[in-house]
Amino acid sequence: MKTEDLPLVSAARELVRGVPHLIADLANVSALIYCSVENINWAGFYLLRGETLILGPFQGKPACIEIPLGRGVCGTAALEDRVIRVGDVRSFAGHIACDPDSRSELVVPLHKDGKVFGVLDIDSPVPCRFSAEDERLFSSLAAALEEEMP
What we know:
By secondary structure, the protein is an alpha+beta fold.
């Protein structure tokens, strides 16, 4: 299946196309994900500033404001520039428990000019909620955002 055939990716692309406001774009995409994806309790973005990820637009309970590179799932994904899918966050060394109800997590790095500028973070209260298919979906969504972002 091609990226443009994925409804969530197409919807996200349309939300941000031609809108030159990063924070507004990410706010709308986090709301789209939160309202469209079952069994999640948090969806949002962290933006890299220096050596720290700073909380960006999100949907869900209040979250950690700063995450150092290399800490937790988000900081590790950003530092290593790789998607990380965790079936049980309690077994992830160094997991940062912003919401004790979260049990699984998927983090996808976002790039600008070939460098990580942030991450898409999605949490679920369901252990092993995220599949390889979800990983492909949200990686495609991140790629679409990278193409359309100002």
